Amino acid sequence: MVAFSDLVWDEQSTPEQWRTGFAEAHKAWTQFSTAEALRVAMYDWEKVGMDWFAAALREGHGRLDEFDERFKQAAEAKRAPDRAFQQAAQDALGTQHP
């Protein structure tokens, strides 16, 4: 695994090169952190909706069965993009697990 410091500095680096590399890495990390925070918030919101849906089904409220198939399809459709995001993040950060 490559260390962060190896990406922004080596023995031949000038202080200006180090600052430039650090700024680029910081910008990338900030963008990733923002995207990750959004993904976590969206996941949490999805869990709230799923908990509500499950409770409504248990209690027999409404005509939820009309929406059940569409709900399941939407949940399944989200799985691949979620996994792709996580894999891309792991690849970008060098945190893949063997």
From TrEMBL:
Annotated segments matching region Disordered: 77-98
Domain of life: Bacteria
Official protein name in the record: Uncharacterized protein
